[in-house]
Write a structure and sequence with these properties.
It catalyses: GTP + H2O = 7,8-dihydroneopterin 3'-triphosphate + formate + H(+). Its EC number is 3.5.4.16. InterPro entries: GTP_cyclohydrolase_FolE2 (IPR022838), GTP_cyclohydrolase_FolE2/MptA (IPR003801). Strand 4 (about 95-110) and strand 5 form a beta hairpin. The protein has six helices and ten strands. The protein is about 20% helix and about 40% strand. The structure holds guanosine-5'-triphosphate.
Length: about 260
Amino acid sequence: MNSHDMPDVQSSHDARDIAIDQVGIKAIRHPMTFLDHGKEQSTVAECQLTVGLPADKKGTHMSRFVALLNEGPLRLSVDSLADWTEAMIERLEAHSGEARFSFPYFIAKDAPVSGQGAMMDYDVTLIGRVEGGRPHIGLKLVIPVTSLCPCSKEISAYGAHNQRSHITVETEIGDPALSLRDLITAVEDQGSCPLWGLLKRPDEKYITEYAFDNPKFVEDMVRDVANALEGYPGLNGFSISVENFESIHNHSAWAVIHRPGQ
Ligand SMILES: Nc1nc2c(ncn2[C@@H]2O[C@H](COP(=O)(O)OP(=O)(O)OP(=O)(O)O)[C@@H](O)[C@H]2O)c(=O)[nH]1
C-alpha cells in the first residue's frame, strides 16, 4: 500500500478556525558544514524547523522537514540561511517559517604566553525567519569568560572570588558579511579575562594576574558588552545577558540589557 492509497489526515480541513504560528519538528540532530568567510567547519547541528499553519488545515507535513535535511549535505552560512528557509517554506507549502540551527562553533586560539594552539568551542544558534516574504537572520552566541569580583577583591586582605561566566548575545544580522570570529572576540574581551582551550603554567599565571587586575561585576560586563556592540557593523539591535556561576553562592548573578533594532 503506498501513501496515495491512504487517507492524508494532515491535508484535511480543520473547522476550529485557529491558525498556528509555528508547527514542525525540533531536537533533531544533523551533521552540518558551517561556512564562515570561506572557512569550512564540520559540526553537528540541533535543528528546529517550523512553519505557520493556516486555520483551515489540520496538520503540517512533518516528513518533509526531515526529507529536506537529508536531501544532500547540509552546508550553511549566514548568507545562505535565508534561501534554505525559503526552500523549506516552499516544500511545506506554507507562507512563513523558521529554521533554527544550534551548533558548537570552534575557534583555534593560541594561549596568551606559551602560544600553544587549541580549539575553543562556543554555542552558536543561527535562526532563519521568513514572514510576509522578508527574511530575517537571527544569531545567538554564548561566550564563556572568567569574571573576578571587585567587591571581594576590595574587602579581602588577599585573593578575590572568581568564576566562569556566560555572556549571551542575541541579535539580528543586518550584514551577512559579519564575521562570527570577530564578534566573539569583541565580546569575550569584556570579561575579567577571556578563556583559552589549553594553558601551560606561564599562561595560567598570566590569566590569574590579568583577571585580578580586571575585576568585573555582572553589571560591569553587561555594560561593557553593550558599549562594545553599540554601532557594531552588521548588527540590528541586540540583547545581552551575563550569568556568573558564582563560586561562593549556590546561585548565579545575572544581568540583562536590551537594545531594540530598527
Ligand atoms: N502534522 C503532524 N504530523 C505528525 C504528528 N505526529 C506524527 N506526524 C508525522 O506525520 C508524518 C506523515 O505525514 P506527512 O509528512 O504528510 O507524510 P505523507 O503524507 O506521507 O507525505 P506528503 O505526501 O509529503 O505529505 C510522519 O512523518 C509522522 O511522523 C503530529 O502531531 N502532527
